[in-house]
Amino acid sequence: MRLFVVNGPNLNMLGRREAGFYGTFSLADLEKNIRTAVGTRAELSFFQSNSEGEIIDYIHKLTADDRLIINAASLTHTSIGIRDALSAVKVPFIEVHISNVYAREEFRHQSYLSAIAHGVIVGLGADGYVLAAEHFLKSTAA
Fold first, then answer.
1. What is the pTM of this model?
2. Which active-site residues does the annotation give?
3. In the prediction, which pLDDT does 4 show?
4. Looking at domain 2-141, which CATH architecture does it have?
């Protein structure tokens, strides 16, 4: 199985921004945790961009046989383009958010991705990514 992890705007700043929402771990720490959890059970690739177009271009390379964990960050609430890209490639994906978006500003309560996602995980910090990966690994093994 090929498992892709995409992180959107400002997630490259993990460990340096708003520790109350995002914790003190860095993006490198997050990726290391996922690598450790997945081990050799899947081919794993990571991508982070602050650019909506780059994220869309990356999604276009995926196929329905791949699996995706995506934290589109602020683009979750604004990007019909990312939603359309996900719909076009038909890649099964889980939407993940480090913070509990429902305990934050109202504009964060709306996601353009959730309705077409395989699942949504919010507010569990870095563990949300690992849970998403474990779900895909378990469902692929069945």
1. 0.92
2. 22, 97
3. 98
4. 3-Layer(aba) Sandwich (3.40)
